[in-house]
User: Fold these one by one.
Assistant:
Number 1:
Amino acid sequence: MSDFLFGGTRIQFGEGKARRLGRETLALGFDRVLVMSDPGVAEAGVLAGPLDSLESGGIDYRTFHDVHPNPRAEEVVAAAAMARDFGAQAVVAVGGGSPIDAAKAVAVLCTNGDDVLRYEGEERYREKPLPVVAVPTTAGSASEVTGWSIITVDRRKVGIGGRDLYPRLTVADPALTLSLPREPTAHGGMDVVTHAVEAYLSRRAHPLSDALALGALKLAFRFLPEVAKNGRNLLARGRMLEASIMSGQAFASASLGPVHALAEAAGGVYDLPHGLVNALFLPRVLRHYAVGARKRIEDMVAVCDAPGPTGFSTAVEDLAARCGLPQSLSLEVGPGELEAMVSAASRDQGEGPGDLSPEEMQKILLQALARDPAD
C-alpha cells in the first residue's frame, strides 16, 4: 500500500512515515496544534517520535494525553478548553481509536461549544470543526479513515458524525504498532473482522465496499494470529494496518449492523473494550443470519478458507480463541443493565440483513456477558 487519497483523507502509509508528520502537518497550513493521546501511548514511548517530528517541522503544540478507552465527555470538554486557550489550528491524534475519536469530538467542540449531546447524529454541528490529523498506533478502530466519533456520556455511547470529521491527513506507520501488547492487538484485530463482516452483510453494500470488506477479511484471517503471536513482525503489523483501513473504508460507505449496536450498548454500560465485545457478539449474530444471509456468508467463507456457511461463526470464534480472547464473560448482569443495553442497541441496529428482536438481543447479551446466562 502506498500514499493515496480516499474519501477526503490523504493517507501516507509505510514504515518511517511518522517521521514526516511535522512536515506534512505544516504543509497543510497548521503551525499550532493540540496533540491528543492516551497514557499507554505516552508511557510506551510511542508518542515521542511524532512529537519530535512536529518540533522539527517548526510546529508549536500542546499535549492532552488523559484520554482513556471509551473516551468520556468530560475528557473532550477539558481538551477542547486547552485547544481554545492555546489557539490550536488543528487537532493531531496519536493513538488508537479512543484518542482519534476524542480528537474529532474536540474538533467539533472547539468551534461549536461544549454540549456533547447536542451533536449526536450526523452533521449536527453548525460551525466547521477544526481539521484533524490522525496517527494510528493500533490496527482496528479505523477511526483514522472515517467521519465518526464515539464518546461516552453517562454510560451511553454517543455518535457524532460528519464529512468534516474525516481526518484531513492520516499517517499510518506500522512501526508505531510494534509495541502494542497482545490483548489490545487481538481486540483491534477482531474489530477489523467485525467491520468487514458487517459491511459485507449490509443492505447498503455495493461492489466497492464488497471488495474492500473481503480484502480486509482475508488479510485479518491470515495475519491476525501472527501479530497476536509475534507482535514484532513488521510485515504482519503492516498487513493488519492495511486491513483496518480497508475495513474502515468499507463500513464508512456501507454502514454497520446489530453487532456494533450491541457492542456500543455493552461498552457504554460496562466500559468494556470495543474489540472484545465485538468478538463476543459477532459469532452469535452470525448464527442468527446463517440462513437469511447464506450466499453472502458463503462468499466470506471462500476468502477465509473457513468451513461452510453454518461453520463461519465457529471460524470467527476459533480466530478469537487463537488470539487469546474468551468466548464469554462472567459479569453480573442485572435487569436494569440488561434493559439499558437492549434499549440502547434497539435505537439503531444499522443496516444488517435483518433486525434482532428485543428477545434475541437479550439472549445474545446474556450468553456473551452474564455469569449465569439463564438469569
Number 2:
Amino acid sequence: MKFYSLIIVLFMITESIALPRFAMRQGDRCIDCHVNPTGGIIRNEDGFYFGKNTLSLISPRQKDFPLSPSITDNLSIGFDYRTQLIYSQEKDRSDLQDMSGNLYMNVSVSENIDVITRYDFVQSIWEGYAVGRILPNESYIKVGSFAPYYGIRIDDHTAYSKGGDFGLLFSLGRIQGMIYNPLYIETGIELGAYLTDNTLITASIGKPKSSAVFASDPTFTMRFETTRQIGVANLLAGASYAAFERKILSSSLQSKMYGGFAGFGLKYFSLMGEYNIARNYVTEGIYSIAVMLEAAYKVYVGIDAIVRYDYFDYDDSTPDDEFEHIILGFEFFPYSFVEARPQYRINLEAAGNKNNAFVLQFHFWY
C-alpha cells in the first residue's frame, strides 16, 4: 500500500467546528458554547470567553483590554484562520499552505431565532441558515445550507471517519474516508429534539449543494446522543445513520452509512472513538469500515497532548486494502485566540516506505 504524504497535507482543510473533548471535560453541550445547537461556526459569549480566558496560557484582563464578539445587542461576528508549515518525508521538502479562512456572522432576529452565516474565503465555501429554538426544552428547527450532523465532529478531516486523506489515491481508483468532509454542505431542514437536558436526537433531509436541482435523490441523516456524569467522569454515547445517493463518474449508488461513537472525559483527560460502516459507498454490494480513536491529556494550562489512530477498510471482503495512520502531536494555546499545533503523521504500511509527514499548524480565531 502506497501513501503520498504530501498530498495528505496539501489537501488538509481543518473544519471550523467545536472540539468534543472540551465539552466532555467540562460536562457541557455544544449549545453551551455555540449559537449552532450542533456546534461549530460562530461561538456564543460563553464560548468566546472560554477561548479567551480559560483555554489559553496567557489572556489579557478584560479591564485592561476589553474584548467582545458583539457589534450590537443582536449582531455578533467571529472568524477562524488556519495556515500551516508542512514537511513531506517522501518529497524531502517543506512548503507553506493556507488551509481555511472563515468569517462568521450571527443576527438574533428574536429571542429564540438566529440567522447564522459562514464564508470561507480560502476554499470559497459558504453556509447560511436560520435556527429557531421554538420547540420545548430548547429543541429547534434549522433551515438553510449547513453540514449534516453525523458522528463525532473533530476538527481534522484526515480522520477516515471524515474526509480522510483528502484527494489521496484517486488516480488509483481508491476512495479514502467517508462523505462528511469539510467541503460537504447540504441545503435542507434539520429538526433537533432534546428528549432530556442530556439527550439529543437530530434528523435532517436535504441535498448536496454540489447537486443541480432535480439531479439527485434527497439525503437523510439521523443522530442520537446522550451524556451522563458519574462521579468525576463525563460520559458520551450515541449512534448515527445516513442514506444518500453517491455519484461516481457515470454510476449512481444508493449508499447507507451507520455507526456508533462513545467517549469519556475527566478534568485533564479525554478518550473518544467512532466506528462506521458504509454499504454501497465505493461500489455496489461492498461494505467499507472507518474507525477513529483519540486520546488527549491536558499537560498544563494551554497545552494538550494528542494521540489519534485512524483506520479505513476500503472493501471488508478484500484483504490488504486497509489504510491506517497514527497522529502524534500537541495543541498549544499560548495566548487568547492563538493556537500552534505540531503533528507528526505516521503511515502504517510495509516497512521501508518513507512517506510520513510533519505538520505545524497555526490557528487564529475570534
Number 3:
Amino acid sequence: MSAVRLRNLTVHNYDKLDMELAYMYLKTGLNDFKLFVEAVDEVLRKWE
C-alpha cells in the first residue's frame, strides 16, 4: 500500500479503516517517505 493510498483511506474512509492493515503498512511500508526525502535532498543539493 502506498503512502497516498493510506492517507486517502484514513481521511476519507476512517470509519472503515482496517487497523491491522494500517499498522502493517506503518511497520513495513515507509519506503515511500524515504524515497521522497532522498528525491528532495537530491534537488536541494543541486541548488547549492
Number 4:
Amino acid sequence: MCKENEKNRTCRWRNSFKPDVLRKINIFATYLKNDRTSKLLTKMPYLIRGGRLLSNYLTRGTSLKVVIISVILSVSTTGCERKGFTVSGRIEGAGNGDYILLREVKPNLLVTVDSVIPSRDGSFEFRSEIAFPSFFLLSMGGDNFLTLLVHPGDKINITAGAGKISSPSSVTGSEATNSMLRFRRDHDMVIGELERLTKAYNDSIGSNRLPVIMDSLDRKAAGIVADFREKAIIYLDENKSSMVSIFLLNQQVVPGLQLFDPAKEPDLFYRADSMLYALYPESDLVLDLHTFVARLRRSVSFGSETDGSIGEGDLLPDIALPGPDGDTIMLSSLRGSIVLVDFWAAWCPPCREENPNLVRLYDIYHYRGFDIFQVSLDIRKEEWTEAIRKDRVGRWKHVSDLKYRDSEVVKRFGLTEIPCNYLIDRDGRVIAINLRGEMLQKKLVELFDRQ
C-alpha cells in the first residue's frame, strides 16, 4: 500500500491484503450450486478449531464444479481482427422443447450469443466470431453447462448426455477446454476424498475417541489439499501461455480457500500476467489480470518480523547479493566511500520517483567520494533491469536475490516499507536513515563541506 504524508510517500506492506483487494480476488470466480459439494460443506462442524486448514470448508454450500470468470474492466475490441469459430456436436437424449444456449463470459455478466433447438438426433451447431481467446458457457437448462475456452478459428465438437453437458463424453478441437476438464475431474476426486473424511467423522460422532479421530482427519485432509496444489502447479506450468492459467489462478479448493494465494505465491500471478499480456493485451480478462497484478505488487505483505532495529551509529550489516550479470557484489566493496544503501523495487512508484534525485546527487558528489548501492526487492529480473535502464541508474551498484518478500534483507533489516535507505560513512556506520529529496542533499552538503 502506498501512503502519503507531508514528508514522503512510501509503499508499506502488511500481513494481509487490504479488504478491497480481497473483494477484488473474490470477484474473479462465481461457484454454482452443486448438491454433492453442498453436503460436504455443511457437515463438518468439528473443523472449526484453531484456524485449522479445513475450517475453510465451512463457508457456504456453493459449487466447486464450474467457474465463471468475471472481471471489472471492460475494453473495446474495435480494430481487432475477428475470426470465426464453430461449436457443434450431439446431445444424446435431448427431448422435445429442449434448447441449447451459448453465452460468452463478459465483465460481470453473460452475453447470449445464440440459442438452437437440437435436431431429432440431438445434433446442434453454433457459429460466431472472436478476436482473441474467450470463455463461453454451453448450457441446456439450469446448472447443466460446460465452460469452453475458444480460440479464433476453433472447430469444437462436443458429445454429451442431455443431463450431463458439464461432463461430456467427448470434446475435440479445443485442447484448452480439455485441460480445464482434466483439472475439474481431478478437483472432483479431491471433493470425493473429502466427502469420505466427512462420512468418517459423521460415523464417529458420539465416540469417546472423537478428538483423536478429528486430528487424524485433519492431517489426511491437509495432505489431500497439499497434493492437489502440487498437481495444480503442474497444470499451471503446462498452460503458462494459455488463458487456462487465468482459470486456474482463480480457483478455490473450497469456498474461502484459494488454490493459489497471491500473498504467498505472487510469482505465479506475475508470470501469467507477463506471458498473457504480451500475447493478448486487448483481452478484457488479461487486462483485468494485469490490473490486479499491479495492485498486488503494491499491496502484498512482506511480513513484519525483524531481527532488531538499526540505528544511527550502528555498523550496517554487509550485503552480498548477485548483480544483474549474476556476479556477487558486496556492500563492503565500497568501504572508503560515503554510501547510500537504498532498498527499492521496480513496482514501487515512490521509489521510481526518487531515482531522478539520486541521479542528480550522484552526478554532483560521486567524484568527491559518494556512491550508491541499490538493493531491489523485485522478483522478475527483466522488470528490475528494465527499471534500471529506464531510470538511467545503471552507473552505480545494483544487487538483488529476486526473492521479493522472502529476500534475506527483508528480515535482516526489518523492512516494512520502501523506499528505505541508510546513509553510511566510510567505515560502514549509519549516519542517517530514510533521507530523500532535499533532506538527502542537505546532509550530503554538510558531509562534504566538512572535508
